[in-house]
Design goal:
Order of helices and strands of chain B: HHEHEEHEEHEEHHEHEEHH
Distance between the termini of chain B: 43 Å
Order of helices and strands of chain A: EHHHHHHHHHH
Oligomer: heterodimer
Number of domains of chain B: 1
Distance between the termini of chain A: 84 Å
CATH superfamily of the largest domain in chain A: Formate dehydrogenase/DMSO reductase domain
CATH class of the largest domain in chain A: Mainly Alpha
Structural class of chain A: mainly alpha
Number of strands of chain A: 1
Helix content of chain B: 25-40%
CATH topology of the largest domain in chain A: Formate dehydrogenase/DMSO reductase fold
Strand order of the largest sheet of chain B: 8-1-10-9
Number of helices of chain A: 10
Shape of chain B: globular
Number of domains of chain A: 2
CATH architecture of chain B: 2-Layer Sandwich
């Protein structure tokens, strides 16, 4: 029989919705970077859409991360000493390297125009893929090592976090390619990672009582409706049936990004509202929801600016390279 | 002899000895290791410690370095009230320290876990890692905050504010390395328990009279939190 709390104290969530935005953006960027590396190095395809997504999502991810620091002006403290026991410290090195390398790759791609990829660009593509793996590894590891958060401290959480990042990267690439009027890359990757997400999430739900408690008591709509149905099942079905339709590809991709957002929103906020000391949920959901609009609007605006910047960078450099070739 | 008198006498004796024969004192001195013992039989849940800590450390409203949740537990003789003063456990293996990406949190030589407020970037990773929910981002300072065992007081021979103010002498603070300290004597005389043993953090806050139902995650329902959140509260017999 449970105890009755006559006097109890709630604790607010310390990672605000900016953290959700950061993990979505950087995960999507890393997923697209891996798709880019695979397409370029294995399939010998240009994969321009994946490059745009990788560079622009990576570029946009930095600001939400700073916004979630309560002392953003002190970010240089990450680099003034070493803390190798902290996965977050490793991430503070991976992130700028990932952003810089994807932007440099976009620059090199634009500058060569229609010319074949040189050895340096091939090496950089491999580096971008390796850094994407580091990003996925550090983001999943950083959260799953927190033993005090039982929903995160499982085998299922990092697996689904990585799978949804890959799915979102493929989905964002499909959407950008559709907007550019191209079939592009990502459909196969979305289907495979989406199906794997369904299996992994299902097994995790069956074996982890903390997740089932979270899903039943805090986020049934978020986890089952928004994430599984709208964010995984529907985009996978659309992607399977959208061999020729650019519209369906674009919608499928956008829904996959939404699925990754829904998963992060539900598990990041839900886990933080689960008391560590009592079997209770803290009453700070309203505060998180109030932050949500500001966070989503800010992150979306930043992402659009990044997409415009990266697209212009590649296209303007390509035009210049084309003129130089003709001259 | 209560804990306050003993602490002051020891502190005064220590400082006198140090002045008289500093070399001999330093040669014989064992390093201190601060710990706290909470005698739950004496705690009445008055929250004087909560208030004293808040005032002493200028903790913002709604946030706490220490607090005393109060529960109603069922027992063989019917329901009874149980209190559980919570604070940082100043663990031997604190999970908050290795996660810090800027080395802002560390243990003092006396074993207190503290935060360098000038170094902290307030990423909140330590808040996530603490299984005792003893950390928070201070709304006034904007950096990670927690109980320091009132390091600014203990370093000059005073007791932590919560110990000083405890009306029932339920909180006993002292040197765990000193077998003659009151805390060590009480620990020798009574069975003590720590919170969250499953995390193997080596807490240095001990409890006398801790109900096993409160030692780890406390199963709660139908109480004050449900009322605050406007949840439907079942009748008492159904809880």
């Amino acid at each position: 029989m449970p105890a009755v709390d006559l006097m109890s104290f709630d604790h607010e969530a310390v990672w605000r919705p900016w953290a959700v935005a950061y993990f979505l953006l950087v995960g999507t960027g890393a997923g697209a970077a891996l798709l880019l590396a695979y397409a370029r190095l294995v399939r010998v395809a240009e994969a321009k859409g994946a490059l745009i997504v990788a560079a622009s999502f990576a570029l946009a991810s930095g600001l939400p991360l700073l916004a979630d620091l309560h002392q953003p002006a002190r970010f240089m403290h990450f680099y003034s000493g070493s803390a190798p026991a902290s996965i977050m410290w490793w991430g503070s090195w991976f992130l700028p390297l990932f952003i810089a390398s994807t932007l440099l790759l976009a620059f090199m791609t634009g500058r060569r125009g229609n010319a074949p990829m040189c050895g340096g660009e091939r090496m950089l593509t491999m580096s971008v893929g390796a850094l994407a793996l580091c990003i996925l590894g550090y983001t999943a590891g950083e959260m799953s090592v927190v033993a005090a958060r039982p929903v995160w401290n499982t085998l299922g959480f990092p697996i689904v976090l990585i799978l949804t990042a890959l799915m979102s990267g493929a989905g964002a690439t499909m959407t950008i390619d559709s907007l550019n009027g191209e079939k592009g890359e990502g459909r196969y990757m979305l289907v495979v990672t989406g199906a794997a997400t369904l299996v992994a999430f299902g097994l995790w739900m069956l074996t982890d009582s903390n997740l089932s408690t979270l899903a039943a008591d805090y986020a049934p709509v978020g986890l089952f409706g928004a994430f599984i149905i709208a964010g995984v099942v529907v985009p996978v079905v659309l992607a399977v049936s959208a061999k020729a339709s650019l519209l369906l590809r674009g919608v499928s991709g956008a829904l996959a990004v939404f699925g990754a957002l829904a998963f992060r929103w539900s598990t990041f906020n839900g886990a933080q509202l689960m008391s560590k000391t009592e079997t209770a949920f803290y009453g700070y959901e309203a505060a998180l929801s109030q932050d949500a609009l500001r966070t989503l609007a800010g992150s979306a605006g930043l992402l659009i600016l990044s997409l415009i910047f990266v697209t212009l960078l590649i296209n303007l450099l390509a035009v210049r390279a084309s003129k130089q070739t003709q001259a | 002899m209560n804990s306050r008198r003993e602490f002051l006498k020891l502190a005064m004796a220590g400082s006198t000895a140090a002045v008289a024969t500093p070399a001999a004192a330093s040669a014989q001195a064992k390093p201190k290791r601060w710990g706290m013992l909470v005698d739950l039989r004496k705690c009445i849940g008055c929250q004087a410690c909560t208030v004293a800590c808040t005032i002493e450390n200028d903790v913002p409203a709604g946030q706490h370095r220490t607090a005393v949740p109060i529960y109603e537990l069922d027992g063989p003789d019917g329901p009874s009230q149980a209190v559980l003063p919570r604070l940082c456990n100043h663990c031997d293996e604190p999970p908050c320290i290795p996660v810090c990406p800027v080395n802002a949190t560390y243990k003092t030589d006396e074993g207190a876990v503290v935060v360098d407020a000038e170094q902290c970037v307030a990423c909140g990773y330590c808040v996530q890692a603490c299984p005792y929910e003893a950390r928070f981002i201070n709304h006034k300072t904007g950096v990670a905050d927690k109980c320091t065992f009132c390091v600014h007081r203990t370093s000059v021979g005073l007791l932590p504010a919560c110990v000083e103010t405890c009306v029932g002498n339920a909180r006993v603070f002292g040197d765990l390395n000193d077998p003659e300290s009151e805390i060590r004597k009480l620990m020798a005389e009574h069975e003590t328990k720590g919170l969250r043993p499953e995390f193997k953090t080596g807490p240095n806050v001990y409890y006398i009279g801790l109900d096993d139902r409160l030692a780890s995650t406390v199963a709660v329902g139908g109480g004050a939190r449900d009322l605050r959140q406007g949840l439907e509260t079942p009748a008492h017999g159904e809880v």
